[in-house]
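Below sits my pick:
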Amino acid sequence: MLQNIAFLLCLVAAVLAHDEHYDQRPIEGPHQGLWYTAFDRIPGDGGTQADSVFSGISTFGRLPYFPCLASDQQKYDIAFIGSTKVSIGERKRTEVVFQVHRSIPGHRTDQVLALDLLELDKVLDVSTYSSRKVRFSGGYNVPLDTNPFNSWAKVLDCGDIPVTSYDNAYAIQQIEQGHHKLLTRTPFTNAHSRGPSKTGATLPRLITLGGDHTITLPLLRSVVAAYGPISVIHFDSHLDTWRPRVFGGAPTTQASINHGTYFYHAHAEGLLANDSSIHAGIRTTLSGLSDYENDGYCGFEIVEAREIDTIGVRGIVEKLRKRVGVERPVYLSIDIDTLDPA
């Protein structure tokens, strides 16, 4: 009995002692002042570079991370997002689309699927860690005389759009809905300024890293819902406007939508602004010249890769500006094979 009373008295004493230390603060780790907090910008010109390139959460460009689809508590001007899954009928490659990208599920053997997933992991690891290195060193670009990480915009890594690996049609729907939800948020900057969207509002910009180019179709659907028919600048080795019966044979309706036909479908759905889109870097083989004719029917002009030898970079830039103009919103899609044949 006395032991029980003594034990209770000890508990009461412990509680009272804890109550008297309500003003205690957690002990900070070593050199706390040298580490960046969640939403601090990287140090500017001459600032302290104390962090390590391999430390912290692996976000794009060491940007602050926030699960934007789960919560709207954080506003942004530019968001990196993605949706990483298995692709339809093509090997993985790094792609960047100004307004979203990653990949679509498909049917493959377990062995090939495993190899693709490993390859995708490597691609995403390289892109993520390369971007971390860029910002770790400060991010200032000498030729462009700018630091994109210290600009007017608040930039976040918003994580991935959840995409099923079992149903391609539903995956495409998920990508469209997830993208549109993030695209139509109120931005951090210029929230009350008039913008080019159909409602007259200023909207944030979205960038996604990824694989299968098929997802451009649901992304364009999302963008067009916000802006109306859009002009496209498409950096790629391939046209991606092939008729479904030419590219894949279209045995089913869903099979007709793939990484070589999505711009054909975009044109058919009225997503592209009339005769204001352009490819750059094309060097693909064709089924015949009818592929080029069909590409023109879909509203694209072509700048072939070999033209850089004759008109140079400035000439190509001038062609792009002349084609899309400077007044309309533009969807920018970049496939890495326009730069690297491998």
Summary: The CA atoms of residues 309 and 315 lie 10 Å apart.
